[in-house]
Specification:
By secondary structure, the chain is of the alpha/beta class. The chain contains three helices and five strands; from the N terminus they run βαβββαβα. Pfam families: Ribonuclease_P.
Length: 163
């Protein structure tokens, strides 16, 4: 039987002097790539000016069904419930309902984003409360101007605009 000798490796205690870092030529660099910010993105809720909030709780959907006022124009239906009296001022809260009959997920998301962008631009004149936008099949074939005019028509009939 051969016995292994236990030995220690010689490791110098001194560190080698620092070397110059490798340099990449400009053809290997990413000069066109955007620089990242040194600061992390902000956390928490954003400022409510000119924004809309999402509906997240079941109670809001139950109230929309029970007490909501509806307005219909073309392929768009809006259901609205006013914010309770005495609650702190909040931006309008919005939810969307689009069935798969409207189109693929890409189509549904495109339509929803168009309506959301429009709502953000008019959120300062929307009454505080909860809104449910139901977009029916055929909405994907509408041009943007027609879609947004139907949304505005529903908003004006469903709830008086705040001044």
């Amino acid at each position: 039987m051969v016995e292994e000798a236990q030995s220690e490796a010689h490791v110098p205690a001194q560190q080698p002097p620092p070397r110059q870092e490798a340099r990449l030529s400009s053809s290997h660099g990413h000069s066109s790539r955007a620089e990242r910010s040194a600061f992390p993105t902000s956390q928490g809720p954003r400022s409510p000016v000119g924004l809309i909030w999402r509906i997240r709780d079941r109670r809001s959907f139950v109230e929309l069904r029970r007490r909501g006022r509806r307005a219909h124009a073309g392929c768009v239906t809006v259901t609205f419930t006013a914010a309770p009296v005495g609650t702190p001022a909040e931006p309008p809260r919005v939810a969307f309902a689009l069935s798969k009959k409207v189109g693929s997920a890409v189509v549904r998301n495109r339509v929803r984003r168009q309506v959301q962008a429009h709502l953000r631009s008019v959120s300062d004149v929307m009454a505080p409360g909860t809104y449910l936008f139901t977009l029916k099949p055929g909405v994907a074939e509408l041009d943007r101007a027609t879609l947004l005019s139907e949304v505005d028509s529903c908003l004006s009939r469903c709830v008086p605009r705040a001044a």
